[in-house]
Amino acid sequence: MAGVDELIAKEGVEEETVEAVKSLAGAYKYGWETEIEMEYAPKGVNPDIVRLISDKNDEPEWMTEWRLEAFARWEKLDEPSWALLNYPEIDFQDQYYYARPKSMEEKPKSLDDVDPKLLETYKKLGIPLKEQMILAGVDGAEDMPAEGRKVAVDAVFDSVSVGTTFQAELKKAGVIFCSISEAIKEHPELVKKYLGSVVPVSDNYYATLNSAVFSDGSFVYIPPNTRCPMELSTYFRINAENTGQFERTLIIADKGSYVSYLEGCTAPQRDTAQLHAAVVEIIIEEDAEVKYSTVQNWYPGDENGKGGIYNFVTKRADCRGDRSKVMWTQVETGSAVTWKYPSCILRGAESQGEFYSIAITNNYQQADTGTKMVHLGRDTKSRIVSKGISAGKAQNTYRGLVSMHPKAKNSRNYTQCDSLLIGDKCGAHTVPYIEVKNNSSRVEHEATTSKVDEEQMFYCRQRGMDEEEAVALIVNGFAKEVLQALPMEFAMEAQQLVAISLEGSVG
Amino acid sequence: MLKINNLHVKLEEEDKQILKGVDLEVPAGKVHAIMGPNGSGKSTLSYVLSGRDGYEVTAGDATLDGEELLDMEPEERAAAGLFLAFQYPVEIPGVGNMTFLRTAVNAQRKARGEEEMSAADFLKFVRAKAKDLKIDADMLKRPVNVGFSGGEKKRNEILQMAMLEPKMCILDETDSGLDVDAMKLVSEGVNALRDEGRSFLVITHYQRLLDHIKPDVVHIMAAGRIVKSGGPELALEVEHNGYADILAEIDA
Ligand SMILES: Nc1ncnc2c1ncn2[C@@H]1O[C@H](COP(=O)(O)OP(=O)(O)OP(=O)(O)O)[C@@H](O)[C@H]1O
Ligand SMILES: [Mg+2]
Fold first, then answer.
1. Rounded to an integer, what distance in angstroms lies between the CA atom of residue B35 and that of residue A500?
2. What's the pLDDT at A163?
3. Is residue A107 part of a domain?
């Protein structure tokens, strides 16, 4: 009976949630910091800093030029203010733009050469031992048997990628998975062709800044008709104080290929806010498919709104080929401020874009997030499922654009946007923009706002659950559709995060 | 087992007294039934005992095996062995029935310092209980009570009761909305749980249920008090003559 087996698996996941809620009764789990000797560039940003970053990465001249042009542009731009976000002015000159562990100056030869603190960091982040060793660059680690299912990991520690696992095995399949700094050197023709082709340098304030100062990130290329043999993932970790993280990710899925990519983010607990401005570009050719899942758990600040990560992210997928497909799934539980709209350009005929999102804000967190579905080709389809959860004094805004261009004949969009409020001091807002420029396309939009129901809470408690367990259960139920869109391991982590990020929201 | 002493309860928000001195004792292993006109305070009594918000106890107390019930949080009362089968079971969208049950069972176990049930044991346990109540695998997978028929919701309450193995079970009109066959299933479910260490307080309007679940004592509640108690024959009397005679007797 297939149905029953499936049931066991699902039940297993959810039990973990409850366990985690109990065992992780503390606050933010990743709030520790690694005391490690760091190398910094001087504070602030100017053409010299841009050159220094380029130089540290050993970049060719064309890359340096590209960055400098971006910087010149950025200097003329003003920070946007249209989002429903309220935060103190960011002093962009009072940040470090480059920080890397000193031990990374030379790649370690064996485990003994690796800074034990770096290894410790990976362990705390839950990266399996084998992966830890590979990340640390230990010879022979790749040939060890893997525990469980394989997931290739790229880890970015502050400004630099510290290592990528399973590279050799991926290479056999023709897949390139490495840090972007490595790709710039090893695969310049691919980088030149695609970098900035989805998110142009001029796109927006934060993307322009990122183009000038990005220090590292991941690069993925999947050759034609190839199904990537394992899931790829990147762990981003901000460790250094007063340091912005500007990562850049470029994913290219060539004709008929498939890849599932996961991204996880954490940062230490600090009183001062920290900046994170990433750019992710995805290019999807004919009949190719990319799934991109994010669990964003940057430090959200304390219960009084002190500290936390300011997260300004530009993510965009370009479905260039006919019948290409992209699916964004995001679970946004962290950050003090989130400004993020993963978007789909549906250029190819019959291409499809999907966006599944859970955004949880508690205490003083603010999120202005959503998506853009730009239908350019005929018979394109998009689907948006957004679940916003607000607790404490938090504000949560869904902002979404659905645009049907004149040539996007017979296209469809379905949007469902649900907000859940916990308590009466928080807010939920829905800002949909809809433009339809042809008369054969259809756009459907549904929105609901509800409160965590007293009756449901009492029912759960009468059955023995405490308040936090009950809220976690109800919220996980509310967000079910999105959780189900995540790969298994991430779904477990996400359910735990839902519970943890809502701690202190009731009672 | 359950002792209620001079319990007075008003609404928190309004100046409305609902329970006006309830006295009731259900010894271990016994089944007591409560009947009474609509609005007499039967559900209110069950909510106050289980700790729902919105009520204020102005006098009296209630104990479960000597423990003061009214000072505890609802989940503490549950862990202490109090179970309420709701008159109107609540829907929880997106939460699988099985997940809900599992979370509840393990929460109570933890609260009592017991070990959690393993996934395999739990599945075996829930399947056996569900089978007895003719609850199929599909109903176990579906979200809690969402789209369940009235009768299915009531059977689901009994399933939860069977899984949680409480010592004091309050059933609030579990028979209403059940067809004849379901009534039998539910009664069998309840009877299977009858045990010298477990007591039942069965709220009902109909003698019918009491044919299946034989009560030791029947109480009549009216205007917020227990006005008369007797043997099973009291239920028959209500069935035939309504409440008029009993109420007239008290007023006199
Ligand atoms: N939250 C409330 N607000 C206003 N009135 C209430 C509230 N809760 C209970 N009552 C009133 O208290 C009285 C007792 O209600 P309760 O539900 O306990 O009656 P019952 O005996 O269970 O009735 P039934 O047999 O119809 O189920 C009723 O008059 C009801 O309207
Ligand atoms: Mg009632």
1. 45
2. 61
3. yes
Distance from residue B13's CA to the centre of ligand 1 (Å): 14
Ligand nearest to the CA of B12: 1
pLDDT at A460: 98
Q: Which of A3, A15, A456 sits opposite B137 (nearest CB)?
A: A3
Do A144 and A246 belong to one domain? Answer: yes
Q: CB neighbours of A460 closer than 8 A, spacing ≥ 6?
A: A469, A470, A473, A474, B92, B100, B104
> According to the per-residue pLDDT averaged within each range, which of A109-113, A272-276, B72-76 is highest?
B72-76
SS3 string, A17-31, reads: HHHHHHHCCCCCCCC
Across A98-102, A186-190, A388-392, B70-74, least confident range: A98-102
Query: Band of the pLDDT at A94, cuts 50, 70, 90?
Result: confident
Using a cut of 0.90, tell me whether the model's pTM lies above it: no
The boundaries of the domain holding residue A218 are 26-287+301-329
Helices vs strands, H then E, count in chain A? 13, 22
Q: What is the 3-state secondary structure (H, E, C) of A77-145?
A: CCCCCCCCCCCCCCCCCCCECCEEEHHHHCCCCCHHHCCHHHHHHHHHCCCCHHHHHHHCCCCCHHHCC
The confidence score (pLDDT) of residue A30 equals 61
Whole-angstrom CA distances from A171 to A167, A228, A230, A296 are 6, 10, 12, 29
Measured between alpha carbons, how far is A120 from A125 in angstroms, rounded to an integer? 9
Cβ atoms of A504 and A362 within 8 Å: the answer is: yes
Beta-bridge partners for A481? none
* A315 and A350 fall within a common domain: no
In angstroms, what is the span from residue A148 Cα to ligand 2's centroid? 53
Among A13-17, A271-275, B81-85, the range with the most confident prediction by mean pLDDT is B81-85
* Residue entry with tokens 């996934």: B119
Cα B229 to chain centroid, rounded: 19
Q: What is the ipTM of this complex?
A: 0.96
Is the minimum CB–CB distance between A278 and chain B shorter than 8 Å?
no
Q: How many domains does chain B have?
A: 1
Q: Is residue B128 part of a domain?
A: no
In a domain, B121, yes or no: no
DSSP state, residue A197: S
Residues in chain A with CB shorter than 8 Å from the CB of B99 are 10-11, 14-15, 473
Q: Which of A233-237, A326-330, B25-29 has the lowest mean pLDDT?
A: A233-237
* Domain total of chain A: 2
Is the residue at A295 inside a domain? no
Q: Does the C-beta of B56 come closer than 6 Å to ligand 1?
A: no
Asked whether residue A257 falls in the same domain as residue A311, the answer is yes
Question: Does some domain include residue B59?
Answer: yes
DSSP 8-state class, residue B66: T
Of A438, A434, A435, A454, residue with least CA distance to A446: A434
Are A373 and A282 members of one domain? no
Summarize pLDDT for B95-145 with one digit per residue, the tens. Answer: 999 999 999 999 999 999 999 888 888 889 999 999 888 888 888 989 999
Range of the domain at B35: 2-95+168-251
